[in-house]
Specification:
The complex is a heterodimer of chains A (109) and B (117).
Chain A: E1 3-5, E2 9-13, E3 18-25, E4 32-37, E5 44-49, E6 53-57, E7 60-65, E8 70-75, E9 84-91, E10 97-99, E11 103-108
Chain B: E1 4-7, E2 10-13, E3 19-25, E4 32-38, E5 45-51, E6 57-58, E7 67-73, E8 76-81, E9 90-97, E10 107-108, E11 112-116
Parallel strand pairs in B: 2-11
Antiparallel strand pairs in B: 1-3, 3-8, 4-5, 4-9, 5-6, 7-8, 9-10, 9-11
Classes of the chains: A mainly beta (109), B mainly beta (117).
């Protein structure tokens, strides 16, 4: 079956770095997406990886290893506003997104 | 700016009322739109995939007669919650995918918070 695993909750300190891991199993693969969702709001797109390696976008970076079925989202210089849920989603061969349950990130001063 | 518009953003109504939610793609054609439901502190749950010009595909456990989906044009899908009851209270979110960019991100609407009294 298709499955996405990511930690339920993580805590980090303002100004620090945090890495949110995601492993996936899908029928075919057309890319890995990361979304940010603040409480009570819709998800917003953060990053997309389809090739192995690291994609950097400001304070956020995303990594993919297709052979390992693994991705991570790296957040640097954490700010209080980064407190949110981070959703990992893999796109299968039918271009359908398979969603993880989300990782709630708590930032402490 | 927003590429997917969802209305209304909030609805409060009495039990038994039917509620229609609209989802529009603003600057691209979307043959496929997705309807999600999210209960407090839970993950996104895909309810159905809306296909332009054909019947929607519903996920297991979602009543198609309860949640009516119409996708009459390449830029508009509607979800109607028929005879809503308090247990239907939830956050409903739509997303759309650019017809010409299947492997690109889904764009989400801002969501509709539905409260049934």
């Amino acid at each position: 079956g298709q499955n996405i695993d990511q930690p339920t909750e993580m805590t980090a300190t303002e100004g620090a770095i945090v890495q949110i891991n995601c492993t996936y199993q899908t029928s075919g693969f057309n890319g890995l997406f990361w979304y940010q969702q603040h409480a009570g709001e819709a998800p917003t797109f953060l990053s997309y990886n389809v090739l192995d390696g690291l994609e950097e976008k400001g304070r956020f970076s995303s990594f993919l290893s297709r052979s390992k079925g693994y991705s991570y989202l790296l957040l640097k210089e954490l700010q209080m506003k980064d407190s949110a849920s981070y959703l990992c989603a893999a796109m299968d061969s039918n271009y359908q997104l398979i969603w993880g349950a989300g990782t709630k990130l708590i930032i402490k001063p | 700016g927003a590429v997917v518009s969802q209305h209304p953003s909030r609805v409060i109504c009495k039990s038994g009322t039917s509620v229609k939610i609209e989802c529009r793609s603003l600057d691209f054609q979307a043959t496929t739109m997705f309807w999600y439901r999210q209960f407090p502190k839970q993950s996104l749950m895909l309810m159905a995939t809306s296909n332009e010009g054909s019947k929607a595909t519903y996920e297991q456990g979602v009543e198609k007669d309860k949640f009516l989906i119409n996708h009459a044009s390449l830029t508009l899908s509607t979800l109607t919650v028929t005879s809503a009851h308090p247990e239907d209270s939830s956050f409903y979110i739509c997303s759309a995918r650019d017809f010409y960019r299947e492997n690109q991100p889904q764009h989400f609407g801002d969501g509709t918070r539905l409260s049934i009294l």
